[in-house]
Structure formats: C-alpha cells, structure tokens
Design brief:
By secondary structure, this protein is of the alpha+beta class. It folds into 2 domains: 158 residues, Regulatory protein AraC (Jelly Rolls), CATH 2.60.120.280; 98 residues, Homeodomain-like (Arc Repressor Mutant, subunit A). It is built from 12 helices and 9 strands. The strands form 2 sheets. The chain has a 6-stranded antiparallel sheet with strand order 1-2-8-3-6-9. A 3-stranded antiparallel sheet has the order 5-4-7, with no helix packed on it. A hairpin with a 2-residue loop joins strand 4 and strand 5. The two termini are 32 Å apart.
Length: 264
C-alpha cells in the first residue's frame, strides 16, 4: 500500500518498499517520521542513531539528514510534514517545543505510545484511503492535534536524554566558529584533551566524526548566505571552505549532488 497526500501546509506519506539509497537532503517543513520497520540508521546534522521500530524522528526545516540502510530488508515508514505557516496558527504555548527549536531528534516507542502518537498516524492513513473532501478536511484538523501531542512528547523525550557536557561544549565551539579555519590540535588544547580521545568521545556520543560534523554544518551554512543573494560561486568563501574545489567535493560527498543541483 502506498499513500500520499499534499496540501499547502501538510504532506503525508506511507509506504513499505525494499531498502534503497537516500541522498542527504533537507525539507522546508517540519517532518515527523514514524520508523515502522527495517534495519537502518538515521543521520541528522551531527548525530547518527540506530533506528528501532517505533521510533519517531523529528526533523526541523533546513536540517541536513538522511537514512542509511544496513541491508536490503523491507523499509516501512509513515511521515507527517507540517509547514511553519500551519504551526504559527496554533497557540505558541502548545507547539513551543517544535517551533522554538526541537532539542531532541528521536521520540522513543514508550513515550510515543504514552502520548498516542501512533494513533494519529493510523487515523490519517485510514482517512486517506477513502479520499474525499470530508476526509481531507478531517485530516487537516487531525494533524494539528498531532502537533500538540508531539509538543508534549518532546518534553518527556528531552528529560530522557542528556548529552555529554564535553561534547555539548565542543559542538557549541564548532558552531560558533564554523566559518573560520578549524584545527584539531588547537581544539584539543582548548578542551585539555588529546585529539585522539576527543575524536573518540565525539564519535561515541554523536555517531559521526568531528570532520563530518563540521562539513555538514558548513554545507547547511551555505544556504543561509545564498538567501542573502551571494552567488553560489562565491558563497563558499563565507562558510569555511578553502576553495571552490573543496566546496564542490564536500557537497558532492555528503549529498550526492553538485552544488548547483543541491542548492537550487
């Protein structure tokens, strides 16, 4: 079964297919993906998660992310994407954990079930199997209730996870200096650790290397400068890349696309 629904503010999709490569990408909407079945890892921004059935993945707009499959077993998922415009129509207090900057990437099965999140997915899938004006109207209402429920679940998910303080401080430092030259020896001295242990700690906590983190952050930073009407052939200079060739290779490596394709 394959279900797809699209309106101005809502995207909904469900399918079960054979695993296939997915390029690193971004969305303009907030995405809430229910990982139902498969053997895969989720990579977002600076972290990698081994997914478990029942995980709900939260991806804000303009965040680089992908799903990497560990084998060719079937992949089943459902997602609901909501536009910032739709969320702005809901009282801020009811969605503040979402629009204020999601601080967790995964809602685990126990919390998702406790807040009834799976029921919302199942209800909209059922409604959209019989497509008519009434059911589409009810779907649009239901996803707003879903957003409120997700907001409450995020509070519990945040309490469940606490990141290593050194890694958190390192990420803050990298974020603040992402457009400047970064040297691992200098960073390790700043954090009073050997660079080997610092790299090990970062990889153990986030699932990716410091180099990967910096590259992904710089790729994301490019889009911000493009919004300021700086040409793509010049923008790399503002985002920590030494030259256009390095910029081109980095974007191609992480997204599978040329800069002109990825940033169009």
């Amino acid at each position: 079964m394959w279900i797809s629904y699209k309106s101005r503010d809502v995207l909904i999709s469900y399918f079960k297919i054979s695993s296939h490569p997915i390029d690193t990408h971004i969305h303009k909407y907030f995405e809430f993906l229910w990982f139902m079945d498969g053997d895969a890892s989720y990579i977002i921004d600076s972290k990698t998660y081994q997914l478990q059935s029942g995980d709900i993945i939260l991806t804000p707009p303009d965040k680089l992310h992908t799903i990497s499959f560990n084998n060719d077993s079937a992949y089943e998922r459902a997602f609901i994407q909501l536009s910032p415009r739709l969320l702005s129509r809901i009282p801020r207090q009811l969605v503040k954990n979402i629009i204020g900057g999601v601080t967790t990437d995964i809602i685990k099965k126990d919390i998702a079930a406790a807040h009834g999140l799976y029921d919302y997915y199942n209800d909209v899938i059922e409604l959209l199997q019989d497509r008519n004006a009434k059911n589409e109207f009810l779907t649009e209402l239901l996803v707003q209730k879903f957003a409120v429920a997700v907001n409450e679940a995020i509070t519990d998910a945040n309490a469940q996870h606490s990141e290593n303080k050194t890694v958190s401080a390192l990420k803050d430092y990298l974020d603040e200096n992402i457009t400047a030259p970064l040297n691992l020896d200098e960073i390790s001295r700043r954090f009073f650790m050997s660079k080997y242990y610092l790299c090990h700690l970062f990889k153990e906590e986030t699932g990716i290397t410091i180099s990967d983190y910096v590259s992904l952050k710089r790729i994301a930073a490019v889009r911000e400068y493009l919004n300021k009407d700086i040409p793509i052939t010049e923008v790399y200079r503002h985002c920590g890349f030494n030259d256009y060739s390095t910029f081109y290779r980095t974007v191609k490596k992480y997204t599978g696309k040329k800069p002109s394709e990825f940033y169009k």
